[in-house]
Amino acid sequence: MSRKAMFQKTINKFMKSVDLQDLQYLAAVRVAISVCGTEDVQNMIRNTDNYLTTVGFSENQWRRLRDKVKRMLNQIDVPHLIIDIVLENLWPICFEIHKWIIYHEMNTGIEWITCFCWTPQVTIDYERTAEILVKNGALDIRKRFTLACFYCFESEVRSLWKHMCLSERRFFYARRNYKNSDQSPIVLYWNYYIQEMPTDYRRSLALDHTRLFKYAVEEGYLSATKFFLGKLKCDQRERMIYDSFNYQFLFRYCPHGIVKDQAAVACFLISRIPFNFREIDHSSTLGLVFHYFLRWPRQKHFMTVVNLLRRYLHEGTFEDLLEGIFYKTIGDFKDYDYQELFMEFWHQCPEGSKTFVRTQKLGYKILMKFVKKNFGFVFEENSFAIKAKFRAIVFQREIAEDVAEKQNVEFFKFLVRESIATNASIDTFSNPVNFTPHSDVREFFNLPLEELKDLIDGIRRPNQP
Question: Which superkingdom, per the lineage (predicted)?
Answer without folding.
Answer: Eukaryota
